[in-house]
């Protein structure tokens, strides 16, 4: 099948829906790092069976290979435009065949989601559909600080004091789709012997070199202590932090994390 749009330059990754059911074989569900932005775009286009999507880190030039409906979410640029129109974020827009889309100026955030479907006349009513005001409020409130909320992990007990939460951690330049190594002050911890154990999105492993936050393309087991786990909405927030960004962890109770996720599901 011909791509709905072509991507020229920059740095981007093709993405699709997450695929569960193979973690016992060592394969993670993968998918977009910023799942909140991806699901927002996917839902605005009414959960299409067929689509093309990328997660973009450095700006690419996009060319429509046919008439499209497109949603752009996540990291935003000062100007996102074609020759004939400015393209808003978090809203369904139409691009005509051979129209070129460019991202210009300063970027706010780190990863941009671009999701498109083929335009058909019966989809005309989707044009202009936008993210809900409640979701706008949630994102604006949650993203205005650099706190990442976590719950206790199975090996939380090895932390001897609150230094893990009292210091700022810096995302390493060696970060990848699999995980984010963090730079900070060494921690005083209890020694523990471990065999490899299951891990999940947002698991924070405490390696000899420092904490590592596991992201969407992680492994499925790990041999380092799992001291905390980032709550689901804040994994997407963390995906918008570029290498070099500093942040702090904030401990919440499991019931609070559950309530936050349930409230978010109602907004998407």
Automatic annotation (TrEMBL):
One of the record's GO molecular function terms: ATP binding
Carboxyltransferase domain residues: 24-267
Top-level taxonomic group: Bacteria
SUPFAM superfamilies noted in UniProt: Cyclophilin-like (SSF50891)
Keyword Hydrolase recorded: yes
UniProt keywords, alphabetically: ATP-binding, Hydrolase, Nucleotide-binding
Keyword NADP: no
Annotated protein name in UniProt: Hydrolase
Species this chain originates from: Francisella uliginis
Organism phylogeny: Bacteria, Pseudomonadati, Pseudomonadota, Gammaproteobacteria, Thiotrichales
């Amino acid at each position: 099948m011909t791509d709905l749009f072509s991507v020229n330059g920059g740095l981007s990754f093709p993405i699709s829906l997450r695929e569960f059911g193979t973690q016992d074989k060592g394969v993670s569900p993968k998918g977009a790092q910023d799942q909140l932005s991806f699901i927002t775009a996917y839902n605005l286009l009414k959960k299409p069976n067929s689509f093309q999507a990328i997660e973009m880190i450095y700006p690419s030039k996009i060319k429509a290979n046919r008439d499209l409906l497109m949603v752009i979410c996540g990291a935003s640029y000062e100007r996102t435009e074609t020759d004939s129109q400015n393209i808003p974020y978090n809203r369904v827009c139409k691009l005509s065949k051979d129209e070129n889309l460019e991202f210009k100026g300063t970027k706010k955030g780190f990863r941009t989601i671009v999701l498109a479907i083929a335009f058909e006349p019966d989809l005309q009513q989707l044009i202009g559909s936008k993210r809900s005001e409640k979701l706008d409020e949630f994102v604006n409130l949650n993203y205005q600080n650099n706190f990442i909320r976590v719950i206790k992990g199975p090996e939380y007990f090895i932390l001897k004091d609150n230094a893990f939460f009292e210091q700022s951690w810096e995302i390493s330049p060696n970060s990848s789709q699999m995980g984010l190594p963090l730079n900070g002050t060494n921690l005083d911890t209890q020694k523990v012997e471990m065999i490899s154990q299951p891990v999940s999105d947002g698991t924070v492993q405490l390696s000899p070199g420092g904490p590592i936050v596991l992201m969407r393309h992680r492994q499925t087991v790990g041999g380092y202590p799992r001291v905390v786990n980032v709550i689901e909405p804040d994994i997407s927030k963390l995906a918008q932090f570029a290498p070099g960004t500093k942040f702090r962890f904030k401990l919440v109770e499991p019931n609070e994390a559950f309530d936050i996720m349930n409230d978010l599901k109602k907004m998407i």
